[in-house]
Amino acid sequence: MFPTQLLMVRKSKKGTVRSLFLSEENSDYCSSVINQFRASLGKRREDVERDLKVLELKSQKPKIVKGLSLLMFRMSKIEPPSLLDPVRVRERIFSLTRVPPVSPSERDEILGKIAIEMNSSLPEIRNAMYADKESEQVLVSLPEITAESLSKKFNSEQIETVMLKTTKIKITSSTNIPRIIRIARRLGLLYSEAGEDAIEVGGPLSITEHSERYGSTFALLIRQMMKIDGWKIDATVSLKDGEKKKDYTYGIDSSVSEYSDSPNGENHSGFIEAKNPLKLKDGEAMFDYSLNIEEKRVNIFVTRPRFYQEDYFIIKKVREEGHNGEIFCIVRDKEKCPAGAICFKDSVDWMRAKEFIETKYSRKEISVEHRPTKKIEEISAENRNKIFEHLEKLYPDSQAMVDYIEFMGLAPSDILEQAGFKVKWKGLRIVVQK
């Protein structure tokens, strides 16, 4: 999303608002920004921004240049000008300069001493002095991107920025509402059905707590919508009108996908986003993803705790009809993992999910629920370290740590102790401490 000051919309007296998009007519802006970045490789960020400021002043619409530059910075690789620790370098400089140097030669003499101490060079010490400042970072590489692709990214950001100002949106689709509901569910958005072909989703401005996180998640909904045909969004948007805020109506439909950035449908580790529902005897089920294992298609739900039981019954029905189905649950903040669920914190760990599915569906003779517990000694040192690192990230959520270890087919108490944690039992529940 763009900062609000980069939002480009046109308001009408009738109370409607529409986004201003880049088209072929003003694609020169994209080419100019890309060429400016190419000419700036190896320069400090401060120098790159100064050159871009000159480009803004020459442009009729400086907002466009600012927005395109922001996108290019996000996609580019920027590194410190030195690998030395800048804090350590500054500490040594201050310790040796109780009396400030009065000439360049005195200054170089002090920096030269530090260079010898750190087995470095005088230019390297100069570069390292403020290497942790954003303005000193160096532009080292750029994305492979065309002017057309950059303009589409710009248009997508404009849509998402407007949507962050919504109190609610109504999504209408005659063919894809089940799929849109699945997207809203796995993102954890607040929604309600508004008839057979429509749903209403609460916008970021309707949230009083964790609104920043909700806004970021809401933007993901808009990105996912770009991959779907045949939908229409009617939104209520709150924007400034002079010194006051005013509600406007904002509408877009699936035709915007032609000139906006649409993410690809394939997920990490071979997971592919489902596009069509699975036909059942008395209805159909719209899954989130699928994964092919040994010529078997495994259908996958990604759900949240409040929808887990409902989705679990659908999975059970799907299995009874001879199809493969699994369900993963995402928990956030203080949410608890539902009993019997396979949970991930904040987002699905696709590598772990794939390991689980491969184990279950490539070796049918072993029941996942009763497979033998592996010993930590049977796991490579590299994977062992990954397990320990993941446990550190989960701490202090004891239940999530135990669920993760059991998910990997290991004994929780043994692994936790080997990972450096203390294990206490409260009844049948493990409490993990450091």
List low-pLDDT spans: 364-372
Number of helices: 14
**pLDDT average, as an integer?**
86
What structural class do you assign from the helix and strand content?
A: alpha+beta
| Gyration radius from CA atoms, angstroms | 27 Å
Largest sheet: 5 strands, antiparallel
Q: Can you list the strand order of the major beta sheet?
A: 6-7-5-8-9
Quick structural gist:
With 434 residues, this protein is an alpha+beta fold. The protein has 14 helices and 18 strands.
Please characterize this protein's 3D structure.
With 434 residues, this protein is of the alpha+beta class. It has 4 domains: 4-80 and 137-149, no CATH class; 86-131; 164-259, 2-Layer Sandwich (Alpha-Beta Plaits), CATH 3.30.70; 268-433, no CATH class. It contains 14 helices and 18 strands. The chain has a 5-stranded antiparallel sheet, with helices on one face. Strands 10-13-14-15-16 form a 5-stranded mixed sheet, with helices on both faces. A two-stranded antiparallel sheet has the order 1-2. Helix 1 (28-39) crosses helix 3 (62-75). The longest helix is centred in the middle third of the chain and has 17 residues, at 147-163.
